[in-house]
């Protein structure tokens, strides 16, 4: 085994995973690929898997499922793949057709996790879409099903109408938008929380308080933020465009934030979003 292979396998072994409410497990840190151009996706995901990522977060909307699928298939590794149903494809029949397209693009036997990307309350089709996801799961086409950008009301409605609890709700979450009320609801109902834009899309990387905590631990601000998600028990899917940053963002299993760090980071919650509001998207 080369030194490099030893480092990669250590990166995989050190990682923690989260047990979902249907008994499946997902690696706690995954590679996000929003805004990765289709022509770059295969190379970047190949690099991600080489440095130790074992979960990839894509979506039909990102138009890079084909590259993600090629990299995952070529790796020969077990990689947890999440993709998402886009807004214009909601509704019972359209959702099934969209799933078939994603399935074909990815070229994988079964998709690990399929999410409704946004509730889009104005079109009121998310409940019908959820029923289709339940069917796809029952048919064994997808291993786990969940949602993204759902509020407590949207979650209560789909659970109340179908009795099926999503395994996760993937929402914008970072130190400036800590989502405490929603995370508490998830915890009460056995729903895992996945943090998207976990680094605040880069906006938090020059925060002075985070810089102080980072220097105390001999880590970077990005690593401190990713560790903060891990300490909270969240699934976290940072996106990075270089091997160096992909490595950096996964090198977070050899330190811990203490209670004082967590208390200080709690003060950064300002309720500010970097992405759209789920009620109006
Ligand atoms: N469900 C949804 O509606 C939804 C919405 C948005 C995102 N997502 C998912 O969440 C993933 C992550 O969110 P995101 O891409 O919006 O934001 P993010 O992960 O919070 O931030 C990504 C930005 O941070 C930079 N960055 C990453 N690691 C860094 C490091 N170690 N040092 C300095 N800069 C670093 C990246 O730069 P470079 O790329 O230049 O390296 C990029 O500009 C997406 O890729 C996607 O999979 C889901």
Topology:
Blueprint: H1 3-14, E1 17-19, E2 25-27, E3 31-32, H2 38-51, E4 55-57, H3 65-75, E5 80-85, H4 92-106, E6 111-116, H5 126-138, E7 142-148, H6 152-162, E8 168-172, H7 180-188, E9 192-196, H8 208-217, H9 221-231, E10 235-236, H10 243-250, H11 259-266
Helix pairs in contact: 2-3, 2-10, 3-4, 4-5, 5-6, 8-9
The structure holds NADP nicotinamide-adenine-dinucleotide phosphate.
Radius of gyration, CA atoms, in whole angstroms: 18 Å
User: Which fold name corresponds to the CATH topology?
Assistant: TIM Barrel
CATH hierarchy, class:
Alpha Beta
By CATH's scheme, which homologous superfamily applies? NADP-dependent oxidoreductase domain
Q: What's the number of domains?
A: 1
Q: How many β strands by DSSP?
A: 10
Termini distance?
49 Å
Associated small molecules: NADP nicotinamide-adenine-dinucleotide phosphate
* Topology pattern, helix = H, strand = E: HEEEHEHEHEHEHEHEHHEHH
Number of helices: 11
Written overview of the protein:
The protein is α/β, with parallel strands linked by helices and 281 residues long. The chain has a single domain, classed as NADP-dependent oxidoreductase domain (TIM Barrel), CATH 3.20.20. It contains eleven helices and ten strands. It has an eight-stranded parallel beta sheet with strand order 3-4-5-6-7-8-9-10. Strands 1-2 form a two-stranded antiparallel sheet. Helix 2 links the parallel strand 3 and strand 4. Helix 2 packs across helix 10, helix 3 packs across helix 4 and helix 4 crosses helix 5. The protein is globular and about 55 Å long. The model has no long low-confidence stretch (mean pLDDT 96). The structure holds NADP nicotinamide-adenine-dinucleotide phosphate (NAP). The site of NADP nicotinamide-adenine-dinucleotide phosphate has 27 residues, from helix 10.
């Amino acid at each position: 085994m080369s030194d490099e292979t030893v480092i990669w396998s250590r990166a995989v072994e050190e990682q923690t995973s989260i047990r979902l409410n249907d008994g499946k497990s997902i690696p706690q840190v995954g590679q996000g690929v929003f805004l990765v151009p289709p022509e770059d996706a295969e190379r970047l995901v190949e690099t991600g898997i080489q440095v130790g990522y074992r979960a990839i977060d894509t979506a039909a909307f990102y138009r890079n499922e084909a590259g993600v699928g090629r990299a995952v298939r070529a790796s020969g590794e077990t990689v947890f793949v999440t993709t998402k149903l886009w807004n214009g494809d909601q509704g019972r029949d359209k959702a099934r057709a969209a799933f078939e397209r994603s399935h074909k693009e990815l070229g994988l036997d079964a998709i690990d996790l399929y999410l409704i990307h946004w509730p889009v309350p104005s079109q009121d089709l998310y409940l019908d879409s959820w029923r289709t996801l339940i069917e796809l799961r029952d048919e064994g086409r997808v291993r786990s099903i969940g949602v993204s950008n759902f509020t407590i009301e949207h979650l209560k409605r789909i659970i109340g109408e179908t009795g099926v609890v999503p395994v996760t709700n993937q929402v914008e979450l970072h130190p400036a938008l800590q989502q405490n009320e929603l995370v508490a609801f998830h915890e009460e109902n056995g729903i895992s929380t996945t943090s998207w834009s976990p680094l605040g899309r880069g906006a938090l990387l020059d925060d002075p308080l985070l810089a102080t905590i980072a220097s105390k631990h001999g880590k970077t601000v990005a690593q401190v933020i990713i560790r903060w998600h891990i300490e909270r028990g969240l699934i976290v899917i940072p996106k990075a465009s270089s091997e160096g940053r992909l490595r950096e963002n996964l090198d977070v299993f050899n330190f811990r934030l203490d209670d004082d760090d967590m208390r200080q980071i709690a003060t950064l919650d300002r309720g500010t979003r970097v992405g759209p509001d789920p009620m109006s998207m």
